[in-house]
Amino acid sequence: LESGSLAADFSTDVNFALFGDTVQLAAKAFFRRTTPRFFQNQYHSKHLWWDQSLNSETRTHIEGLFSYQKTNSQLRVAIDEIQNYTYFGMSYTLDGTARKNLTAGVYQSAGNINVLTAQLRQNFQWGIINWENILTYQNSSNTEVLPLPDFNIWSNLFLKFKIARVLSVELGGCVTYFTKYNAPDYVPQLSQFAIQQNAASRMELGGYPWVDVYANMHLKRARFFIAYSHVNGGSGNKNYFLTPHYPTNGRIMHMGVSWNFYN
C-alpha cells in the first residue's frame, strides 16, 4: 500500500444441511482507503494537462453469498459505499462524426455513492442438456459519475455428450445482454475509459443481445474448438456497441487446437 492508504478485510462462512444437501452461507467485507496516485494529481502531456490535490478515496464493501448445491443455485448480494469517488471524466463537442475540443482529467465526487448489487447464478441439467445462467442487478445512487446498466444477463445452453465413449463434445450457444445506460467513453490520449460530462454528447448503449454458437471437443490429449461469434451481427441492427463510437466486430469465425505433449 502507498503511504496513507489502509486496507482491512473480513470473511467467514458456515455450512449446514437442508433437505438432504448442503447449504453454504458466506460473508465478506472490506474497507479501503486509497491515496491518489501521482498521475491522478499531476499529469502533463501535449494534449492534456492538470495539477490538483485530490482527497483519499474510501470504499466500504459488505457482501453475503447463499449457495445451495442441490439446485445449483447461488445468490450474492453486495452493498458498496464510496466516499470521494475518483474517476476519469471527459467532454467534447460533436461536429458530424468528428470530436472536437476534447478535454479530459481526473475528478472526484463530493458526496457518498452507494451501489447495490444482486446476482443470481442458476444452472440446470437434464441428461445431456445443460443450461447456465447469470442474472445481475445493479443500482448506483449517482448515475452521473458512476453509470451502471440495471440488468446484465448471460445465458449458455449446450449439449454435453460423448461419441464412442472417447470423444467429449459440447455443442451450444450463449447470449450476453445488458439494459440501456450512458456508457463510459474512451480517451485515446490516456488509454482510459471516462465519464462523458457533456450531456449533449452522451451515448446510450445496451438493449442489444450478443449471440455466439460454438462446438468444443476433447479427445485424449487434444482439445479443439470452433466458434461463430456474434451470429446476429449481420441482421441489419447496428447497435452493437460496448463503448461509444467503437462498434464490436460483426460475425466472425474462430478455430483453435490445444495439444499437450508429454509422456
The overall pLDDT, averaged over residues, is 91
* Percentage of β-strand residues: over 45%
Supply the number of helical segments: 1
Q: Tell me about the biggest sheet? A: 11 strands, antiparallel
Low-confidence stretches: none
Strand order across the biggest sheet? 1-2-5-6-9-10-11-12-17-18-21
Helix and strand run: EEHEEEEEEEEEEEEEEEEEEE
Helix content: under 10%
| Rounded radius of gyration (Å) | 23 Å
The global form is: globular
Report how far the terminal alpha carbons are from each other: 45 Å
The class by helix and strand makeup works out as mainly beta
Beta-strand segment tally: 21
Polypeptide structure, described:
The strands form five sheets. An eleven-stranded antiparallel sheet has the order 1-2-5-6-9-10-11-12-17-18-21, with no helix packed on it. A four-stranded mixed sheet has the order 8-7-15-14, with no helix packed on it. A two-stranded antiparallel sheet has the order 3-4. It is 2% helix and 65% strand. It has one helix at 38-41, and strands at residues 6-18, 21-34, 42-44, 49-51, 57-68, 73-83, 86-95, 98-108, 112-126, 129-140, 151-163, 167-178, 181-182, 185-187, 192-196, 204-205, 210-219, 222-229, 241-243, 246-247, 252-259. The two termini are 45 Å apart. The longest helix has 4 residues, at 38-41. It is an all-beta fold and 263 residues long. The radius of gyration is 23 Å and the shape is globular.
Write the layout of secondary structure elements.
Layout: E1 6-18, E2 21-34, H1 38-41, E3 42-44, E4 49-51, E5 57-68, E6 73-83, E7 86-95, E8 98-108, E9 112-126, E10 129-140, E11 151-163, E12 167-178, E13 181-182, E14 185-187, E15 192-196, E16 204-205, E17 210-219, E18 222-229, E19 241-243, E20 246-247, E21 252-259
Parallel strand pairs: 7-15
Antiparallel strand pairs: 1-2, 2-5, 3-4, 5-6, 6-9, 7-8, 9-10, 10-11, 11-12, 12-17, 13-16, 14-15, 17-18, 18-21, 19-20
